[in-house]
Design a protein that fits this description.
By secondary structure, the protein is an alpha/beta fold. The protein is 32% helix and 30% strand. It has 2 domains: 2-216, Rossmann fold; 219-292, Alpha-Beta Plaits. The structure holds adenosine-5'-triphosphate (ATP). Adenosine-5'-triphosphate binds next to strand 2 and helix 1. Its main location: membrane.
Length: 293
């Protein structure tokens, strides 16, 4: 059974084509990352999935129904990028209120526990840190025990520790066969938490596969250094290297294993100056992938 089906879906804002001809189905029970750079069309796609944004063309179905119907039936929970919490209320009050709007909500204590809020349930929501606020948003998203959970950059305001515990809660929640679709800018986050990664850039799907397949396509990082007029032959044979770009005096190697690449680079005997190692720049990687095609 498909949890989600986009069929020929496009959305334009005036002359801006935010999403173009999206054809994607997502199986119930899977955890899928929607990965892409700023402005790729992730939030627009999520908005259409929730019935908040109307497609210019095409059709969206959630468990075989329109997004509006699926949302009304309490089948979908969402955690969006913004949305203020009612100030003055405690965490427990906010979560209880949201629970009361659903036909078959999860028990209150279970929600608080899953969202790691039990200890701060009595605190006012306007006195929370960024990470704690995100946890309340998560609690609100799961309050109705939805079959599909949609998260738009859920860990944006969190530090490393909060991210880790957030994803642990998520795995707990999804254990009973629920479906998760989340948007992220980070390949590592997609890799660690999804079983399928759909990459979008400029409103189109440019890659779709397991995290392993996606990493092999884009590399997980870039190793850059000043090569000057030294020979470039052999750089593409260094371990992990996937693409070599020479721009003036700068050599940029896209690699699946930056550590191994750097070690081997030093062993070549080349004079390496201005070394920089960075995480994958998806925008760059995908713009060049789509151009190469
Ligand atoms: N309400 C709107 N009016 C006009 N243009 C919009 C609107 N919403 C989005 N866009 C444009 O549509 C494109 C896709 O935006 P969208 O927010 O879906 O991307 P995104 O992948 O979610 O980006 P981010 O990671 O920055 O949130 C962008 O060019 C954006 O400027």
């Amino acid at each position: 059974m498909n949890a989600i089906a986009f069929t020929g879906v496009s959305k334009s804002y005036g002359t801006v084509r935010a999403v173009e001809a999206l054809d994607v189905t997502i199986d119930a029970g899977s955890t899928v990352a929607l990965l892409g750079p700023n402005g790729a069309g992730k939030s627009t796609s999520i908005g259409m999935l929730l019935g908040l944004v109307r497609p210019t063309a095409g059709e969206v179905r959630v468990f075989g129904e329109t997004p509006d119907t699926a949302v009304k039936r309490g089948q979908v929970g969402a955690m969006l990028q913004d949305g203020a919490l009612v100030p003055g209320l405690t965490v427990r009050e906010v979560v209880s209120f949201v629970r009361s709007m659903y036909p078959e909500p999860m028990p209150l204590e279970r929600i608080l526990e899953l969202a790691n809020l039990t200890d701060i349930a009595g605190r006012r929501v306007d006195r929370l840190s960024g990470g704690q606020t995100q946890r309340v948003r998560f609690a609100i998203a799961i309050a109705g025990a939805p079959r599909l959970l949609v998260l738009d950059e859920p860990t944006a305001a969190m530090d490393v520790e909060s991210r880790r515990s957030f994803w642990a809660s998520m795995r707990d929640y999804v254990n009973g066969g629920r479906t998760i679709l989340f948007a992220t800018h980070y390949l590592e986050e997609a890799d660690e938490n999804a079983d399928r990664v759909i990459v979008i850039a400029r409103g189109r799907v440019v890659a779709d596969g397991t995290p392993r397949q996606i990493k092999a396509m884009v590399g997980t990082g870039t190793v850059q250094f000043t090569i000057g007029d030294q020979p470039t032959a052999g750089l593409d044979a260094l371990p992990g290297v996937h693409t070599v770009d020479i721009r003036g005096p700068i050599a940029q190697l896209r690699t699946t294993d930056p550590d191994a690449t750097v070690q081997a680079l030093y062993a070549t005997g080349l004079r390496v100056t201005g070394l920089e190692v960075k995480g994958a720049d998806l925008e760059d990687a995908f713009v060049s992938l789509t151009r190469d095609r």
